[in-house]
Amino acid sequence: MAGAQKTLRKEDPALLSGRGRYADDLPVPVGTLHAHVIRSPHAHADIVSIDASAALAHDGVWAVLTGDDVRNMSEPFLAAVKTPVTQWSLAVERVRYVGEPVALVVAESRYIAEDAAELVAIAYAPLEAILDPVAACEKSAPLIHPQAETNEVSVRKFCYGDTEAAFAKADRRIAMTTEFPRLSFTPIECYVVVATHNAAENSYDVLANFQGPFSMHPVMARALRVAGPKLRLRIPPDSGGSFGIKLSVFPYVVLMGLAAKITGRPVKWVEDRIEHLVSASSGPNRVTTAEAAVTKDGRILGLRLDQLEDYGAFLRAPMPGPLYRMHGAVTGAYDVANVEVVNRVVLTNKMPSSLIRGFGGPQLYLALERLMQRIAVELKLDPLDVICRNLVPAAKFPYKTAAGALYDSGDYLRAVEIATGGGRLEELKRKRAAARAAGKKYGIGFAVIVEPAMSNMGYLSTVMNAQAREKAGPKNGAVSMARVNIDPLGAVSVTADVTVQGQSHETVLAEIVSRELGLKPDDVEVVLEIDTAKDQWSIAAGTYSSRFASGTAVAAHLAAVQMRDKLKGIAARQLNVLPEDVELAQGKIRSRSNPDNALPFGRVAATSHWSPVMLPESMAPALSETGVWSPQELEPPSHDDRINTSFTYGFVFDMCGVEIDPKTYQVRVDRYVSMHDAGRILNATIAEGQIRGAFAQGVAAALYEEFTYNEEGAFLSGTFADYLVPTVSEIPPVEILHHSSPSPFTPLGAKGLAEGNCMSTPVCIANAIADALGVADVPLPATPRRIHAMLAESGKP
Amino acid sequence: MRRVSKDQKTRIALTLNGRKLAAEAEPRMLLSDFLRHGLGLTGTHVGCEHGVCGCCTVLIDGVAQRSCLTLAVQAEGREVRTVESLAGADGKLNALQQAFRNNHALQCGFCTPGILMSFTDFLARNPHPSEAEIREVLSGHLCRCTGYAGIVAAIKEASSPKQVGIMYLTSTQSDRREPFSA
């Protein structure tokens, strides 16, 4: 793409001029109060008493909410896994992680609320905390929720094919255990909520930088004890990043709603960075034991995975998503028919886990791709040969995986050949040889991953067995919606069911719609704020699981096609030609056979406003067309627990060389190559931006970012000085390559691509470190301290 | 030096984006809060409130400063410039802004105003920096969307020797002062 003109985004002029409209920028009603959350300093403790009298006496303080208030005024949050555990928007009786909201001070200003918070006296009786997920599963472990009688709140075993027979006839069994750490991608804008309660209607109107999925809307409405339409949720036109994290603003939507109800005033809360780091959201940490049954030439006959995932103190909806979102794709890019998977969910005294870019992929592929590297080492084979020997062959697409995913398209081997060709791999090998000859520690890593996009809304029901699923009612599919509108002068605008977080949806939707209507992208206005009371949405709405390219973009395409076809019918009558002879091009609607017979687009498009009686017979006015996209491939889980977890499946192959500094133990990524097959690319500039962003986060997970707790559960990563977000200095260059296997399942042929490197990069770098140091275990993030400790232990420093 | 009482709002007069104005604030109010919620200029963003992320960066007397580590009262009598001052009155982007747009140097755009202001200061002093110098200054900012490559490309474009007549320099540059010591 070198030399190609970059797209000029529609979003940019406002954002570059300080004219963005983020949640905290929008005006609030006169009289709005401001809230401050008091949080638990203990990882595990009973709340003995809360005395708010001094705070309430402070000038300007309107209310102090506690667990008693939320228990009286709201319902506990619905969860995806049925357990006796209840959770509210404030701690009730007990705190279970450092940072858990305990009380809410509502005052005339945030400054006053924070002053008054110091006057709230809370007495705690500390309890033993449990942080380690493996230890938390032991019988003797302190219970996070005594009524659940265990911390391991969900265990399911899945068997596909005949894994036992595969292991019996294998030449070798190779196993390893990996641990994926806790981290977050910390959007630079934190959570913002402004809630209003209308006592006359008992309705709530809440502005929040929520990202979806809107399956959480009924969870919030139920907690507030109102029917869905009584909770009007508005999402602002701009959001300062999300990466999955802004789903977890939902408890605060409810909490501020309750505060607004109690005070009779609008209540605003802006999360600060310390709060965000300590308690907003974290990706789950996972301990995986993976074992492969292999032939001596490295062919995998069977696979066993035991995945223990730590969700922190509460299993919030839609958890345990990361364990199940990848379920159909649990064999990754490999053709493996016999698989056993045990999924275990454990609770500990850490902040609750939730959505995060990559969502289960980084955890799965750390186990799978480290195992592949290990197989090569143990069998003394070339790791790339082992990978290629097991890839799903191109002839098998569409390919049904053992666990039920339907991979739409791909040519994995070809993509790997292209990426390793062009002298790239040879150069890496040459550099490694030269570095090693000079006594340096240099390694090469590979990773192949399948990148799912647009989740099947029924995937999470795989956490239940078939009988329980039947009882709960079928869940499946994923609906996308977009609307194309025509104004009285024929100007075009678009709305859609996505939340803006920087993915350039405005730009890409304008391109998709303008193309069908014969207009320029600048002719199309795209308005992407959401108002649940007036916009069209389904539970799948929002921006997550890379659903845009294979979901909402298709819906917008369909809406534009519907509008185009109607306008052709209208124009045919005005041009006195047959509809088949009409085309929309260059801002005109004209006869294909006689282009001089033309009308301006706006003239035809405005007909439905001014002259609806003159429309062709039986045509409804062409004022607004809604595209609805509901792909049938997203079937419910089968009786034998096979599930097509996502709609499209892209492919990523990564390759890198790293060198480890002999004095500082710093890992330096010397060269990184990332090959992507995301089908048809909707916009090359935007695609590159998404890949680079995911790559930076993948590097962060591999080398820098980690939420750490001490053994008592104190949180040690509470500032950006402790939690190391990479700056420009830490991000190595990346060479991005593309190979295109358009999806046959969507009219646009496009797949998601924004999460791939979050999944592939951590393990690719880990594999390179393993190669450099000749070690079996590479703990992430591979900080200098860890690498030094590892080498000291093995006597190799 | 003017004395203010900690419990009383005080009137703060400053020059903001070339216009003299005044408004009241408590002595403890941060400059970032004052700009956003006292004066209504919401282009300056707040990302960490402990001086690491850089997104609240503004110019005070021509020098890039973290407005989250500055009290509003410290802006008394100073000349403050925010991101809102960069584009023309007709909305036309300046060369630095345009270079960001040309190079897809932003996605969500939340960190962008701070980066623009840092480089408005830096490029005024060093119009043609090396890439290493650009990276050095940029390392004072956190961006979570882009992976930084587009930002580096944008600043290189804006500061390439081929770019002539870029309007980074403004009247404030003539009386550039060191960061206040008060």
Helix-strand blueprint:
The complex is a heterodimer of chains A (797) and B (182).
Chain A: H1 12-16, E1 33-39, E2 45-51, H2 53-57, E3 61-66, H3 67-73, E4 94-95, E5 101-107, H4 110-117, E6 121-126, H5 133-136, E7 152-160, H6 163-169, E8 172-180, E9 192-198, E10 203-208, H7 217-223, E11 231-235, H8 250-263, E12 267-270, H9 273-279, E13 285-294, E14 300-310, H10 321-325, E15 338-346, H11 361-379, H12 383-390, E16 399-400, E17 406-407, H13 412-420, H14 424-437, E18 441-455, H15 466-472, E19 480-486, E20 492-496, H16 505-517, E21 524-526, E22 530-531, H17 547-575, E23 582-585, E24 588-591, E25 598-600, H18 601-605, H19 607-610, E26 624-629, E27 646-660, E28 667-677, H20 684-703, E29 735-738, H21 756-773, H22 784-793
Parallel strand pairs in A: 1-12, 10-11, 14-15, 20-21, 28-29
Antiparallel strand pairs in A: 1-5, 2-4, 2-6, 3-5, 7-15, 8-13, 9-10, 9-12, 11-22, 13-14, 16-17, 18-27, 19-20, 19-26, 23-24, 24-25, 27-28
Chain B: E1 10-16, E2 19-25, H1 31-38, E3 57-60, E4 63-66, E5 79-81, H2 95-102, H3 112-125, H4 131-138, H5 149-158, H6 171-174
Parallel strand pairs in B: 1-5
Antiparallel strand pairs in B: 1-2, 3-4, 3-5
The domain count of chain A comes to: 3
Low-confidence stretches of chain A: none
Largest sheet of chain B: 5 strands, mixed
Total individual domains of chain B: 2
Percentage beta strand of chain B: 5-15%
Total number of beta strands of chain B: 5
Strand order of the largest sheet of chain B: 2-1-5-3-4
Shape of chain A: globular
Q: Considering the protein shown, what is the CATH homologous superfamily of the largest domain in chain A?
A: Aldehyde oxidase/xanthine dehydrogenase, molybdopterin binding domain
> What multimeric state do the chains show?
heterodimer
